[in-house]
Amino acid sequence: MAVSLRLPSLTLTNLFSSPSSLPILRRRRPHGTLLRPPPLAASFSSQRAEAASAQTQDKSKSSKGSDQVITPRSQDFNAWYLDLIANAELADYGPVRGTMVIRPYGYAIWESIQDYLNVKFKETGHSNMYFPQFIPYSFIEKEASHVEGFSPELALVTIGGGKELEEKLVVRPTSETIVNHMFTKWIQSYRDLPLLINQWANVTRWEMRTKPFVRTLEFLWQEGHTAHATPEEAENEAIQMIDIYTKFAYEQAAIPVIAGRKSKVETFAGANKTYTIEAMMGDRKALQAGTSHNLGQNFSRAFGTQFLDETGQMQHVWQTSWAISTRFVGGIIMTHGDDAGLMLPPKLAPIQVVIVPIWKKDEEKVAVLNAASSVKEVLHTAGIKVKLDDSEQRTPGWKFNFWEMKGVPLRIEIGPRDVSSESVVISRRDVPGKQGKVFGISMEPSILVAFVKDKLYEIQSSLLERAIAFRDSNIVDVNSYDDLKVAISQGKWARGPWSATNEHELKVKEETGATIRCFPFEQPEGIKKCFMTGDPAEEVAIFAKSY
Amino acid sequence: MAGSEAKNSGSKQSGAKKKEVKKETGLGLTNRKADNFGEWYSEVVVNSEMIEYYDISGCYILRPWAMAIWEIMQGFFDPEIKKMKIKNCYFPLFVSPGVLEKEKEHVEGFAPEVAWVTKSGKTDLEIPIAIRPTSETVMYPYYSKWIRGHRDLPLKLNQWCNVVRWEFSNPTPFIRSREFLWQEGHTAFATKEEADVEVLEILELYRRIYEEFLAVPVIKGKKSEMEKFAGGLYTTSVEAFIPNTGRGVQGATSHCLGQNFAKMFEINFENEKGEKAMVWQNSWAYSTRTIGVMVMVHGDDKGLVLPPKVASVQVIVIPVPYKDADTQGIIDACTATVNTLCEAGIRAESDFRDNYSPGWKYSHWEMKGVPLRIEIGPKDLAKKQARAARRDNGAKIDIANDNLVDEVKKLLDTVQQNLFDVAKQKRDECIEVVHTWDEFVQALNQRKMILAPWCDEEV
């Protein structure tokens, strides 16, 4: 079986190695080159200075406020993205080039993703465990001929405890080699199968070009690894996991991903099949948001992972692996965010409702704050994630902007008049201006809670609907290569019947910058003709420029 | 099905049904806790399927059986600190050397243990990069950046992550490994008083983890000047004791860093009077070492002994078929038992594997430390009852089906309490109060924990 065993990178290698036009982080880079970590004292103070000059607001909270402006998306999508991340306090730049500090607000989004997926993994019989971060270089070298994509990206430890190490250690870029090493030890008979494990961990890939959440030197992810007795089981598992990811994207993140199978060119040589979920970002580029691989027996043959089957024959196991990472947070930002900032789907929002008390005169303050507190209690008791912003040194206007920037789905305003009428004003983050505002909602708990829950549900659906509409209006069905070129040049996705060769595929990439994102699971009926060759085609493929 | 991760079944088996295996065959420990503690410990952690050794010395694989314990503790600790308004975040693994060196004493304490990344792919890095041994130096430059005024305080962050300390002293799974998992909390306050309060609040949470979850008695206290955290003001800790070796084990630490790091990293703020002031900081952590302490305290010569509160499987239900007796009926009864217990929130599983005898299963699950075993055979079926066996003291109790949930709950609580009581008694027996140096040396040689007046002067 002459399959070259490139280590599957599970979600991200493909994008790392593809030289897509990824803008380098210019705005915040301290003096120094891309490769060298910046000089220390300089790095932070220069980051501070640069940040201060680069932004209309500096890092200090006191000057943030109604002048908190981010670059409009239409003007410079990448600058918008970086501004948003800074202003919504999602992340900061790490001291070592390309690393990222995930601030509490950003981390809380990752935690909601973790909480949901962890439950799903357990429900489907997987157990969490933890493999060491260091891989002996010899393990990787075992696969050296197949790891061309990885070796320039490997971080190597050569000194430990003041001494040169006997063997170089690799900081894991992904855990296949260790996992398979252990699988070989743990699997002897069919009774040991299926083996279903997962780990939540950090991985390191020494990237040249980085972008917070989307591509960082070190990122957090989960990587599932399973071993099965039959190819059918492995295939079912791979599909089951991509289904779980799809459902998660739609139902929790309100992101209408297109699930499908990667083309041979885009599949990792270590896998028989790669399944992916592709999301359309606000700039219409595609983001590979999660992958699931059917690894067949590629790794079991390389590592000698065998089992005695029920008939007494030795066989190689059939494996899968699948992963989602902190890149998904970048996907949420770029799918729903707008010029006012982040927009979070209620199901993943760390704060679902923010209460802003408003008063002009001192005598009004106590009543307003009391009312605000009790509204907070009511919502909190009902299981809603609510925050009361009662800080006194910020104006209500400032708070409106701040919490909109942070993407909180609902805002409740309480002023003196609301106190007397025992009602509140509720504003939706996803509908700007007067249209999104409702006055006179009763403070009476049952009414208020029902209204809030209802609105959150509406926002969740509305975000999804909007994303679906945006996605669908930016996918063009093409029947010729020329049509595809037009669509891609307009920044859209192209979908058309495809049965051409790998060479054709690479030609499209060279000439248009677009790659096959996937052959979607959902296929149109009818007889199709490949738009490139005119030959009969069984499936349509989706082409797009991507991250 | 019991155990979703494959078990290490030792020798390869044929597909044919395994013959009745005697309890002793291949499943017992070869070392005894009282005789060779070190070897006993290594055997237990491997045979109970918690740890797998790895090709890199001092690094271990945490298998699901161990990971579940870690996750249960997390499930307690994380909500507790969230209640204290401490927020989770994630800082990078990598530290640049200059930043690492900022706090001189700190670096003296940790530098010898740091692992360095010197190459990326084939290229040498211009400046090598360190892997975090602890994250003070990674995080505090950001504290300096983010804290401007008193309204930015308190700043309370925590992260769950892995750290690397390249030690050369005896690596021991869980207890001392080169990479381990932990949580590290880092907080900054406007006043020392606030910091002092939190140090103890956290220490109390650590005590609860040990005493309420792991059933391990600990002593709270303050470290000596020599033993305190490198670069900090004072360190408090919970200390456990292993009677078999006469050795103390630092269970978890809660440090007040004072203003030392604030000085080095320029973490200042404008206080309410408009003056520039330095913050007061704490840092606190507990790690996977907790699991090792639990193993050492409760384990016995049959293997691991898990306190019910942290056991991923609290009750294992085993069918005991007999010749032509109603085997299906027994299996059905087992399934029903598991379902009833699970519905009541008890973590119960069954072991229906037909290639292992009941006796083999008893030994296996005892090795894995499951607190309670329930056996159902034809006689139990007839009497509408089940036989329970406690892992901690071997006691056997018959439970009527009608009282299943209540009895099991009571038993689990009793086992939990008993494990703690026994451990506490053994520990207390080891404490000796001394007043002279000679008494001290003698007691130490007898593997005692010593309580003695100490002036803590630097000599």
TrEMBL record, chain A:
<dbReference type="InterPro" id="IPR002316">
    <property type="entry name" value="Pro-tRNA-ligase_IIa"/>
</dbReference>
<feature type="region of interest" description="Disordered">
    <location>
        <begin position="46"/>
        <end position="70"/>
    </location>
</feature>
<dbReference type="GO" id="GO:0005524">
    <property type="term" value="F:ATP binding"/>
</dbReference>
<dbReference type="GO" id="GO:0017101">
    <property type="term" value="C:aminoacyl-tRNA synthetase multienzyme complex"/>
</dbReference>
<dbReference type="GO" id="GO:0005739">
    <property type="term" value="C:mitochondrion"/>
</dbReference>
<dbReference type="InterPro" id="IPR045864">
    <property type="entry name" value="aa-tRNA-synth_II/BPL/LPL"/>
</dbReference>
<feature type="domain" description="Aminoacyl-transfer RNA synthetases class-II family profile">
    <location>
        <begin position="97"/>
        <end position="345"/>
    </location>
</feature>
<dbReference type="Pfam" id="PF00587">
    <property type="entry name" value="tRNA-synt_2b"/>
</dbReference>
<keyword id="KW-0030">Aminoacyl-tRNA synthetase</keyword>
<dbReference type="InterPro" id="IPR006195">
    <property type="entry name" value="aa-tRNA-synth_II"/>
</dbReference>
<dbReference type="InterPro" id="IPR036621">
    <property type="entry name" value="Anticodon-bd_dom_sf"/>
</dbReference>
<dbReference type="InterPro" id="IPR002314">
    <property type="entry name" value="aa-tRNA-synt_IIb"/>
</dbReference>
<dbReference type="GO" id="GO:0004827">
    <property type="term" value="F:proline-tRNA ligase activity"/>
</dbReference>
<feature type="compositionally biased region" description="Polar residues">
    <location>
        <begin position="46"/>
        <end position="57"/>
    </location>
</feature>
<dbReference type="GO" id="GO:0006433">
    <property type="term" value="P:prolyl-tRNA aminoacylation"/>
</dbReference>
<dbReference type="InterPro" id="IPR004499">
    <property type="entry name" value="Pro-tRNA-ligase_IIa_arc-type"/>
</dbReference>
<dbReference type="InterPro" id="IPR033721">
    <property type="entry name" value="ProRS_core_arch_euk"/>
</dbReference>
<keyword id="KW-0547">Nucleotide-binding</keyword>
<keyword id="KW-0067">ATP-binding</keyword>
<dbReference type="Pfam" id="PF03129">
    <property type="entry name" value="HGTP_anticodon"/>
</dbReference>
<dbReference type="Pfam" id="PF09180">
    <property type="entry name" value="ProRS-C_1"/>
</dbReference>
<protein>
    <recommendedName>
        <fullName>proline--tRNA ligase</fullName>
        <ecNumber>6.1.1.15</ecNumber>
    </recommendedName>
</protein>
UniProtKB/TrEMBL annotation, chain B:
<dbReference type="GO" id="GO:0006433">
    <property type="term" value="P:prolyl-tRNA aminoacylation"/>
</dbReference>
<dbReference type="InterPro" id="IPR017449">
    <property type="entry name" value="Pro-tRNA_synth_II"/>
</dbReference>
<dbReference type="InterPro" id="IPR033721">
    <property type="entry name" value="ProRS_core_arch_euk"/>
</dbReference>
<protein>
    <recommendedName>
        <fullName>proline--tRNA ligase</fullName>
        <ecNumber>6.1.1.15</ecNumber>
    </recommendedName>
</protein>
<keyword id="KW-0067">ATP-binding</keyword>
<keyword id="KW-0547">Nucleotide-binding</keyword>
<dbReference type="InterPro" id="IPR004499">
    <property type="entry name" value="Pro-tRNA-ligase_IIa_arc-type"/>
</dbReference>
<feature type="region of interest" description="Disordered">
    <location>
        <begin position="1"/>
        <end position="25"/>
    </location>
</feature>
<dbReference type="InterPro" id="IPR045864">
    <property type="entry name" value="aa-tRNA-synth_II/BPL/LPL"/>
</dbReference>
<dbReference type="InterPro" id="IPR036621">
    <property type="entry name" value="Anticodon-bd_dom_sf"/>
</dbReference>
<dbReference type="InterPro" id="IPR002314">
    <property type="entry name" value="aa-tRNA-synt_IIb"/>
</dbReference>
<keyword id="KW-0436">Ligase</keyword>
<keyword id="KW-0030">Aminoacyl-tRNA synthetase</keyword>
<dbReference type="InterPro" id="IPR006195">
    <property type="entry name" value="aa-tRNA-synth_II"/>
</dbReference>
<feature type="domain" description="Aminoacyl-transfer RNA synthetases class-II family profile">
    <location>
        <begin position="92"/>
        <end position="307"/>
    </location>
</feature>
<dbReference type="GO" id="GO:0004827">
    <property type="term" value="F:proline-tRNA ligase activity"/>
</dbReference>
<feature type="compositionally biased region" description="Polar residues">
    <location>
        <begin position="1"/>
        <end position="14"/>
    </location>
</feature>
<dbReference type="GO" id="GO:0017101">
    <property type="term" value="C:aminoacyl-tRNA synthetase multienzyme complex"/>
</dbReference>
<dbReference type="GO" id="GO:0005524">
    <property type="term" value="F:ATP binding"/>
</dbReference>
<dbReference type="InterPro" id="IPR004154">
    <property type="entry name" value="Anticodon-bd"/>
</dbReference>
<dbReference type="Pfam" id="PF00587">
    <property type="entry name" value="tRNA-synt_2b"/>
</dbReference>
<dbReference type="InterPro" id="IPR002316">
    <property type="entry name" value="Pro-tRNA-ligase_IIa"/>
</dbReference>
